[in-house]
Ferrochelatase (Sphingomonas limnosediminicola), 335 residues
Amino acid sequence: MTRPEGHPSVPDPKVGLLLINLGTPDAPHATAVRRYLAEFLSDPRVVEIPPIAWKPILHGIILRTRPRRSAEAYNQVWTNEGSPLAVIARRQAHALRERFGHRVSVHYAMRYGNPGIAAAIHNMVSEGCSRILAAPLYPQYCAATTATANDAVFATLAGMRVQPALRTLPPYYDDPLYIDALRANIARQLGALDFEPERLLVSFHGMPRRTLELGDPYHCHCQKTARLVGEALGRSVEVTFQSRFGRAKWLEPATDTTLAALPKQGVKRIAIAAPGFSADCLETLEELGIRGRETFMHAGGEQFALLDCLNDSPESVDMLERMISRELAGWVQQT
Ligand SMILES: C=CC1=C(C)c2cc3[nH]c(cc4nc(cc5[nH]c(cc1n2)c(C)c5CCC(=O)O)C(CCC(=O)O)=C4C)c(C)c3C=C
Ligand SMILES: [Fe+2]
Ligand SMILES: [Fe+2]
């Protein structure tokens, strides 16, 4: 790097990138799942019920029953290398490390479970990172995901005497880089199917409807992503919301009821994409790929394809590299 004459040469600051995802249990067993669910479902950003009312339900009912059922579901998608979400998060970080080389120190962390956000930031700081970009890998902003990931980053810095400088990656639901990565990823997979789907469903994780009424932009972000992806692919898409939890009204239409209804409307061949998930996980592989498929086929469907998420595909790594480089402008020499 050349510097204008008269300016003393200062060492380049070390820049760190922290990729953040939701988290997953350490093992597909009820004990590990209970530990994970207890942390996840105790987050007031996730369950917005006053703790005095929620705690007895969580500890008295949910944590007594759900871990065993969820562990069975995790068992069906667990791999030799671990939980799919953890495996893919590791691969995404590895791929970006290769892309950025010595320019950026790439780490990843989970909001719940391991590796944790606080530990990752402490590692980065002790490694000498004085500037950190925290990148929650949620394309659509939601208080239950983006905000709580950022909260955990801010809380870690709040306890430090010498803080690194910090940036956060904004939501990227309508970023042309994201839409183009989805277009390429979905088009490639549709082209490789041995049938022509009559309908392309795009299923996003659901949220309580009340969060939309309170002003969370998540629902609008999902709708815009879906519209832009449909336009980019040149075909219509149908938006649904999955993973309903509890008794309150959630965003609609629900993925499971749509899957049960489509064959009766004459739609027998479908493909389903889940563009809100940056990595395949329990919610895509088990809820859509196993239970969703069963629901559709039992209702009279004939062909069903679950498309992979962006994961560590070349288009995903290109997208992340370019989006992150843009956020790091001024911090890192562009190549
Ligand atoms: C009130 C409950 C939940 C809200 C709100 C919620 C929002 C939300 N979640 C994701 C992404 C993921 N959720 C995952 C699993 C999962 N989600 C909930 C509940 C809520 N999610 C539970 C209880 C679970 C655990 C599994 C189960 O018991 O059903 C996952 C997968 C994790 C994995 O280990 O693979 C992801 C990813 C988003 C994006 C979101 C709001 C937009
Ligand atoms: Fe969830
Ligand atoms: Fe689920």
